[in-house]
Amino acid sequence: MSRLRTVPFDVWLEPLIILVIGIGYAIWYRSTTFTATEQASLQWSNLQTTILEHIKLTVVATLIVVVIAIPLGILLTRPSVKRFEPVAVNIANIGQAAPAVGLLVLFTFWLGTGFRTAVVGLVVYAVLPILQNTITGLRQVDQRTIEASRGIGYSGTRTLVQVELPLAVPVILNGVRTALVILVGTATLSTFIGATSLGTLITTGVTLFLPKLLISGAILVGLLALIIDWLGRLVELAATPRGIS
């Protein structure tokens, strides 16, 4: 019970917001008359496939970014390669500073259209938050703590795994959450290069002037982003060592 009392307010608030928006959308959906095109797009069998493809695109891109950015961030905090940190961060910053649509179109010329190209474009776009937070999280670990662990005989690798990374976990996972939310929103643009996503509802709504379809797509993307952000917050909370806020 005492553990529950220490749970941050946002962990309780966000699911309530999700619930309110979800119920509001469900009520609106049931009380609205849709055209044949809107009904076909929002039919559960089609919508389920679209949502799952959107989630698949987001998760695959996130896993690849995590595999690239976290080890790279760890490497760049080591004294021997520390001097390369500004170069790596600036390169990652270029990926996020570039317009997402522009990145996807450029990769289309190289890789063609479809799921693979969308994943590559999203990976390039989302590297910076995780890379930057990994570096920041490890940098903020008290140097005296590191020296103490080395003083009791820990190797550099053991110090990293058992001391530095656990203390940096909250900051690193916050970067992963940020990247996930960015990817959920940006994945909607993959529809322009032939990858299935919730962006299909939005672009169809705009192209055919079907505002109800556009609204549905926007609300579903927003709900998905909130749900993923909340789940990421739960993981962040669970993985944070006790005594670290």
Automatic annotation (TrEMBL):
It is found in: Cell membrane; Membrane. SUPFAM superfamilies: MetI-like (SSF161098). It comes from the Bacteria. InterPro entries: ABC_transp_perm/SBD (IPR051204), MetI-like (IPR000515), MetI-like_sf (IPR035906). The keyword Ligase does not apply. The chain crosses the membrane at residues 12-31, 51-75, 87-111, 117-135, 180-202, 214-232. Keywords: Membrane, Transmembrane, Transmembrane helix, Transport. CDD domains: TM_PBP2. It is a multi-pass membrane protein. Residues 51-232 form the ABC transmembrane type-1 domain. The keyword Transmembrane helix applies. Gene3D superfamilies: MetI-like. Belongs to the binding-protein-dependent transport system permease family. This is ABC transporter permease.
